[in-house]
Each structure stands twice: as structure tokens, then as C-alpha cells.
Design goal:
InterPro entries: DNA_pol_HolB, DNA_Rep/Repair_Clamp_Loader, P-loop_NTPase. With 327 residues, this protein is an alpha/beta fold. Helix content is 56%, strand content 8%. It binds zinc ion.
């Protein structure tokens, strides 16, 4: 059993670890950098499994170590999770520094994975510096992050940096294949997953996704036809359902992104292939500059909503401006 083979994509990284593990040349500290849900944690888990397995054909999936790992109970694999919004210095000291000082209980390695290293405070990073600089012979630290810029140069320079790219469209299709989806649905999920299996999984589990996507488009199409009176009705409809506003703006943004793509290159990789007629109609009526301006307006509204600015004010303003420049 080879757990690396079960992970979709990232052939280079899998090949690197297969080789490093066989030749016992695994480094002491790594940074796994890449977008959400592409397999960083899965690879970390597979590395740990291959290193800690006590069977013949590693990872065997049958030995005590493998069973403990599968149950999430192996004492020599430790995950450091963020506290609330950040990973604090006390957590780093308690879970990473102290644990690393204690020899492994069972295997030849102790592996500590920081799951959201971009949330580490500066103090937290400084606290782990010595562990990364002078690791014990059995110690391996893996820092998982979506944003490399959040790590101190002193940390970065001491780690092997492995970059996880978004997965190709084909890989996402491969992941979606076992689900009972129509061809159209498969296309929609694959496109909205943005190269991330984690996101694809979330979308499939989100029973409202397809419905919400349709609702977002319906509102936008209504806005196109609305006069001033109707527009204020729309503001009310949208603001009556505050939880939906963020998703709606995201759906709108991708809609305008489709318009821009259609204008520039044709109908490649559209998020709204099922609305091609509406997209073509709308893109023919808008200039490239207007589309670009509208994208900025929607992004601006997203920022304002995130800053908790009064929703009715934000939406009213946005709708007025989206209407205003219609040419
Ligand atoms: Zn095993």
C-alpha cells in the first residue's frame, strides 16, 4: 500500500519524498506552501506514515504504527493547530518546542506539523527558531501555509520549501468521478473548485451551493432589466438575507470574470457555461473597461461587507453604480 499514490496530483513532490524516504535523506524542516485544499496536509500525513510505519512495505497499513496513525493517535505525529485566529507563542512552546525535546515514543522520528503556519505570531515564529535551527536527529517539522510572506526570513531560510500548485482541471474531474453528478454539474463543481479538492469537497457537501449560485445569477440578471424602482426592491430583497450577501458578491465577481474572459479570449473555462447565452448578450453590451470597473466595484463592496459597513448602504451604492455605467 502506497499512500502517496492515493493522493491526486503533485507528482514531483511525491517523487521527491519517495526518494528521500527510501534513501533516509528526509530533511528536518519543510514549508508546504499552496492554496487551500490541494493536498498539503494529505502529503504531510503520508510522509509521516511512511516514516513511522514498522512494517516491511512502508506504509504497510497493518502494523501498530499505521493503525495508530490512521486513528489519529500516534504519539510521534503531532499537529499544532491555531488557537483562535493566530497560533500563539504559548502553543508553539507547549506543542512544538517541548514535544520536540522529548524523544519519540515508538518510531525513529518525531514529526510535528503546524497546520496553519501563516497564523503564527512573530513571537511564535521566534520561539520555534531554535528547534528548526538545531533539530534533534529524530525531529521533523512541517510548516503548512497558504501565504509564504507571513513567515520570517529566518524561518524560510532554514526550511526546504515545497510549492503546491492548484491541481489541473483533469485532476479535479478525476476526484469528482465517483460522485453521482450530471455532466453539467461536474463541470460547474470542477470550475468553482479552482484546482482544489478541498474546495470541491466543500461545495459538494454544501447542499445549497447550486441553488445559491442560481439565485446569485437571477438577481444579477434582474438588475440588468430593473428600473430605479425595481432596483430599490432588489436592494431590499438582497439585504433581507444578510448571510447570503458575501456568497452573492462572490458569484457576481465570477460572473464578471466570465464576461472579461469572453471579451478577451472566447469561452474557455467559464464558471457559468450553463448561462452562455446571457453571458454573450451582456458582454456584447459592455466595454472591456466597464467590465473591469464593475469588477472593482464588486471587490470594493466585498471589502466593505467584511469591514461590517452597513449592508443596505453598500448594496444600494453598488447596484446604483453597476447600473449607471451600462452602455
Ligand atoms: Zn505500517
Amino acid at each position: 500500500m502506497d499512500t502517496f499514490n492515493k493522493i491526486i496530483g503533485h507528482e514531483d513532490i511525491k517523487r521527491y519524498f519517495n526518494k528521500a524516504i527510501k534513501s533516509e535523506k528526509v530533511s528536518h524542516s519543510y514549508i508546504f506552501e499552496g492554496p487551500e485544499g490541494v493536498g498539503k496536509k494529505s502529503i504531510a500525513q503520508a510522509v509521516a506514515k511512511s516514516l513511522l510505519c514498522q512494517g516491511e512495505d512502508k506504509p504497510c497499513g497493518k502494523c501498530r504504527a499505521c493503525l495508530l496513525l490512521e486513528a489519529g493517535n500516534h504519539p510521534d505525529l503531532i499537529y499544532v493547530e491555531k488557537d483562535n485566529k493566530t497560533t500563539k507563542i504559548d502553543t508553539v512552546r507547549e506543542k512544538l518546542v517541548k514535544n520536540m525535546d522529548v524523544k519519540p515514543y515508538q518510531g525513529p522520528y518525531k514529526i510535528i506539523v503546524v497546520t496553519e503556519a501563516d497564523t503564527l505570531t512573530i513571537e511564535g515564529q521566534n520561539a520555534m527558531l531554535k528547534t528548526i535551527e538545531e533539530p534533534p536527529s529524530y525531529g521533523i517539522v512541517i510548516l503548512i501555509t497558504q501565504n509564504l510572506a507571513k513567515l520570517l526570513p529566518t524561518i524560510k531560510s532554514r526550511c526546504i520549501h515545497l510549492r503546491f500548485s492548484p491541481l489541473p482541471y483533469q485532476d479535479i474531474l478525476e476526484y469528482l468521478a465517483p460522485y453521482q453528478l450530471s455532466e453539467r454539474q461536474t463541470e460547474i463543481y470542477a470550475q468553482f473548485a479552482e484546482g482544489s479538492i478541498g474546495i470541491a469537497k466543500k461545495l459538494i457537501e454544501d447542499e445549497r451551493f447550486l441553488e445559491d449560485r442560481k439565485k446569485g445569477v437571477d438577481l444579477l440578471l434582474k438588475l440588468q432589466k430593473a428600473d430605479l424602482m425595481n432596483m430599490y426592491d432588489l436592494v431590499k430583497v438582497i439585504c433581507d438575507e444578510k448571510e447570503f450577501i458575501s456568497s452573492m458578491l462572490h458569484f457576481w465577481l465570477l460572473w464578471y470574470r466570465d464576461l472579461a474572459v469572453l471579451k478577451a479570449t472566447g469561452n474557455e473555462n467559464l464558471y457559468y457555461l450553463d448561462y452562455q447565452f446571457h453571458l454573450l448578450d451582456m458582454s456584447s453590451k459592455l466595454t472591456y473597461n466597464t467590465i473591469d470597473k464593475h469588477i472593482k466595484l464588486i471587490k470594493n463592496a466585498q471589502t466593505q461587507i467584511n469591514q461590517n459597513i452597513y449592508a443596505t448602504f453598500v448594496i444600494e451604492n453598488l447596484l446604483l453604480k453597476l447600473k449607471e455605467k451600462k452602455k
